[in-house]
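Give me the fold.
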Amino acid sequence: MKFELAQILTNIVGFVIVFWVLKRFAFGPLLKMLEDRREKIRADFDEADRAKAAAEKLEADYAERMKNIEAEARQKIQEAIGDGRQVAAEIKEQAHTEARGIIEKAKADLVRDIAIAKIELKEEIVAMTLAATRKVIAESLDDKRHRKLINDFIDQVETAK
């Protein structure tokens, strides 16, 4: 194998010219395109990190909100239980009041009925006594005087008790 110096020099000069042309016109845009691609990838990774951080923050906010909602729900349930107990106590007190009223009314009715029964009994006794007295005594006193005598007698008996 024989090396020819002219051919080697021509190849070297051709290589230098091609390298210079590529460096002048192609390497700059290619390197710029590679650098732009690297920056875009870096920006995409940064955006992904920001999105991940935002998602983690949203998740933490969601967990905090859920905790607050649960605490608020427990508080509302406790308030409802308290309100229910208060309503139950009010209903119970109202029922006791109504029961006392019914008992008092029944007592008053009973006292009134007893008084009416005593008056009716007294009148019946007066009538029976008058009838018995008329039969026993042949002489008849007037009805008004009989009633007065009998009522006085019954009043004396009642006050003696």
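Residues 1-32 form one domain.
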